[in-house]
Amino acid sequence: VLPGSADAAGQRATLGVMGGGQLGRMFVHAAQRLGYFTVVLDPDAQSPAGLVSHHHIQTDYGDPAGLAQLSQQCQAITTEFENVPAQALQALAQTRPVAPGAAVVGIAQNRIEEKAHFTACADVSGVSCGPYAVIETPAQLQAVPADLLPGILKTARLGYDGKGQVRVRTAAELAAAWAGLGGVACVLEKLLPLSAECSVLVARGWDGQVVGFAPQRNVHVDGILAVTHAYEGNLPPALASRARDAAVAIAQQLGYVGVLCVEFFVVDDGSAHGALVVNEMAPRPHNSGHYTLDACDVSQFDLQVRAMAGLPLPLPRQHSPAIMLNLLGEVWLDEHGQRREPNWPAVLGLPGTHLHLYGKAQARAGRKMGHLTITGPDVVSVRTVAQRAAALLG
Ligand code: ADP
Ligand code: MG
């Protein structure tokens, strides 16, 4: 789909996205900058992406009429969150290129399948999952090896930002937690001593070409990403290159098309740099890649647009060290839970601050409202500004 083109019937080059959250919004911005028209399918009238898109189809993700309208209004389709029904992507793929495809999104939607894929390509990727057990039946619950405890019980489907997860110490707690989650399909992961977390974003085209960003180091608080460190020296170089190679291998083995994020744990195993373990993947751009908007010549959203449209995928170049601070609803809430406006003039008065707000009206604790990226000439100045910004927002 060439940017700015029109077909014989006069329809302007248009890209579609399933889902209207902040990732969809930043996708829309990137697509529009290249001259594409955009269409967002999302049931929410006030969705962050729907608010900025040329067209917004306001139906459920599985609605046949909505899906038909989407494929009619655009020439290629992507997704911005992994819980779009795989069947919907399959239906769209009958008439339009869909990237990533239903099969790979289906794998990423299910922790059991995701881990099976990581295990199947461990020989090529060089990285395995941490110890875990699948729990789909009471018999499997009974058979859980004791050495997986203490652990984290995670629902196989529909978890995000630490939701659908329960920490358990004993077999009795595990049984209660599984019952509490409704006895749905789960995985129990051994609780690992993490010395760090990192993620890698890669983009793969229809022709199999893969490009990627350097690995980011991520800090999570209560299961939600809080800070991303993106600069040279953020991780031991040997570890970073292993993570990058593993992410490329995982994307290749999936036959993936689009932007893929692979999350890793660095486990403290007594060795100098720790052991790399693959955690999960997201079939879309990722919160940990938001810094690429301000610190790289091509962002993760630019690559998403290019990959789905069949345009060239240049190797991104990061031109500035960066730190990204996630802005959760708490930033807008005082100690009584009343809304307050953050001191944006002070924050934006700091050098190298880039504010991104997602257009969400309601601030709730834990809700991703926006992010702030800090770029600068060197790591020390970026760190200093990030600390000042964090203090102003705290
Ligand atoms: P989500 O889909 O919510 O991102 P994750 O599996 O990535 O779920 O878990 C969220 C966070 O919880 C991780 O980034 C990490 O900080 C912590 N966590 C998850 N699993 C483990 C584990 N097995 N051991 C230690 N910490 C974990
Ligand atoms: Mg995660």
Automatic annotation (TrEMBL):
Keywords: ATP-binding, Ligase, Nucleotide-binding, Purine biosynthesis. InterPro entries: ATP-grasp, ATP-grasp_carboxylate-amine, ATP_grasp_subdomain_1, PreATP-grasp_dom_sf, PurK, PurK_C, PurT/PurK_preATP-grasp, Rudment_hybrid_motif. Its EC number is 6.3.4.18. It catalyses: 5-amino-1-(5-phospho-beta-D-ribosyl)imidazole + hydrogencarbonate + ATP = 5-carboxyamino-1-(5-phospho-D-ribosyl)imidazole + ADP + phosphate + 2 H(+). ATP binds at residues 111, 154, 159-165, 189-192, 197, 220, 279-280. Pathway: Purine metabolism; IMP biosynthesis via de novo pathway; 5-amino-1-(5-phospho-D-ribosyl)imidazole-4-carboxylate from 5-amino-1-(5-phospho-D-ribosyl)imidazole (N5-CAIR route): step 1/2. Residues 119-309 form the ATP-grasp domain. It holds the Pfam family PurK_C. It is an enzyme of class 6 (ligase). Homodimer. PANTHER family: PHOSPHORIBOSYLAMINOIMIDAZOLE CARBOXYLASE, PURINE BIOSYNTHESIS PROTEIN 6/7, PUR6/7. NCBIfam families: PRK06019.1-3, PRK06019.1-5, purK. Catalyzes the ATP-dependent conversion of 5-aminoimidazole ribonucleotide (AIR) and HCO(3)- to N5-carboxyaminoimidazole ribonucleotide (N5-CAIR). Belongs to the PurK/PurT family. This is N5-carboxyaminoimidazole ribonucleotide synthase. It comes from Hymenobacter saemangeumensis.
